[in-house]
Every structure is written in C-alpha cells, then in structure tokens.
Amino acid sequence: MCIGSPERVATAHYAYLLGMYLGDGHLVTSARVPVLRIYCTDTYVNIIEECERAMRATLAKSVQQVQKKGCVGVQAYSMHWPCLFPQHGPGKKHERNIVLADWQQRIVDAVPEPFLRGLFHSDGCRVVNQVTTGGRRYSYPRYFFSNESEDILKLCAAGLDRVGAEWRRNRTNSLSVARRDSVALLDSFIGPKD
CA–CA separation, 72 vs 108, rounded Å? Predict the structure, then answer.
C-alpha cells in the first residue's frame, strides 16, 4: 500500500534525498518492512544531518544513524519507500535502467538545485584544480560528478542544463563543471562538502 500521491512529499527534501539515493543509497525490500539506507562518509557531519532531515521531512518519523567503518548509514523503515523510489531493484544501479517516473521528473524539473546537491553530496566533489601553462601555474575551483551509471550521469547533466551550468564529460564515468560562472552558480547551492 502506497501513500497515495507521491507528489505530496516535501518537494525540495525529496529531490535532495533522490539525488543521495541515486548516488550512495539503496532500498532493501526483502525485510518485513522496507528500509532506505544512504551511506555518507563519516567526516561529513553536515551532510549526514542534511540527509537525516530530508528523510524525516519526506516520510520517516524515526531515522537511525548506523556507524560503519569510515561511513554512517542513515536509514529509516517504511512500507512506502518502494513507491517513492521506483528505481530500486536487484543488482547494481549501473547494471539496470534508471529512469525517473513522471511525477519524479516534475519534482526534479521544479527544484533541480536540491536534486543536484544530493547528487554532488553523494558522488561529487569540489576541488581546486591546478594547471601549469606556459610556465605559469593557475588554480581554480572545479566540480566533478562521477558515477558508473550512464543514466544517472544523464540525470545529473540534465539538472545542470536546467540550472544553466556549463559542463562537459571529462571521462566516460564523470562530468566536470569548470567555467567560473558555472562554478559560482553551483557554489550558491552546493559548495564544498563538510
């Protein structure tokens, strides 16, 4: 039994949680009550707290943090997780199709910033890139998003297009945002991990 209209969830919080799920989450449906787990590096305390807030605002009354070696599993049980994350399934995400449901796409189109924030918090980074050209050394900030799923890379690229950030594929499993104005745009709603 589902919650009825999934679009009734807290939109921005759900968009963030969807991005986190697509990066570092999974849904266990073999238990009596399904459990959504998002794994966060344990040094990023603010991301762990933001993930927990998003889970609570989306659906969960009770959220647990389970310490693992080097990471924290933020998790919550609910019969409704499977209808909120229809991308779940057996196997690895990059070995199956990842397509957003129409109602999910409407949410991501309406609030792409928290969706991108979730993606970059899970599988992205902001670095200071250093290059030497003509004997001069240059440093500039740059974002990277890496994922083995072509579908998830395309969702990230579409979100970047939606907010007007220029990006390019720098490897087969990665995209890069390096232009100054696009980095400044991402800094306004993502910023460095902490």
Answer: 26
